[in-house]
Amino acid sequence: MGKKLKEYVNPKINKTRMIAYMGLLIALDIVLTRLLSLEPMLATWRISIGFLPTSVTGYILGPIWGAVEAVIADIVGYFMFYKGEYPFFLGYTFSALMRGLIYGLVLYKCKGSNISIIIKCVISVFIIFVCIDVALNSYWSTFMTKNPYWVCLIRNLPSAAINFAIRCVLMPFMMIFMKNNHKSIFGRNQ
């Protein structure tokens, strides 16, 4: 592994422990995203707290493993809970990859005061809101629905805005909790 790449992978966690964390966080991601989510109006709308395991993975293990967790959870979750509305589409998996990468890049090795953690959480959520949830997912929706981009954008905006608000409220609490308790949760060699 290259020197630059090693900066984004937590070297303190042994492989067995990392695999156990990943399995736990992937399973939690699937449950929170697929089973404990609201899909109020359209099949493209989903309001969930499935971002929490991905953000924790990025915080604890780094952006590479955050992206890997998000991709595996997206693919496995899709095939485990297939609803028959749309075929599998790699564009949404790419969006999941980018979410995990962004959470990891912004939150990994996040130290400092609670205010700095809150600011980093809001920054990561805002980047994901604008670039992925609104722009990129609306673009992917044009392939799936054959509607113009602006129609998909208008349809995706309310769901993205609700998820943005939920993430801005819940994520800082989770990251501050992780900062204060990750050694007791994830072991002493953290």
Topology, element by element:
Blueprint: H1 3-6, H2 15-35, H3 51-61, H4 63-80, H5 90-107, H6 114-145, H7 149-186
Question: What are the key terms here?
Answer:
mainly alpha, Arp2/3 complex 21 kDa subunit ARPC3, 190 residues, globular, 0% strand, 75% helix
Describe this entry's structure for a reader.
The protein is mostly helical and 190 residues long. The chain has a single domain, classed as Arp2/3 complex 21 kDa subunit ARPC3 (Orthogonal Bundle). The protein is built from seven helices and no strands. Helix 3 runs antiparallel to helix 4, helix 3 packs across helix 7 and helix 6 crosses helix 7. It starts with a helix and ends with a helix.
The gist of it:
The protein is an all-alpha fold and 190 residues long. The protein is 75% helix and 0% strand.
Strand content: under 5%
Unreliable residue stretches: none
Number of strands: 0
User: What spatial form do the alpha-carbon principal axes imply?
Assistant: globular
Structural Rg: 17 Å
Helix content: over 70%
Largest sheet: none
Count of separate DSSP helical elements? 7
Order of helices and strands: HHHHHHH
Q: Can you name the CATH architecture?
A: Orthogonal Bundle
What is the C-level CATH assignment? Mainly Alpha
Cα separation of the termini: 21 Å
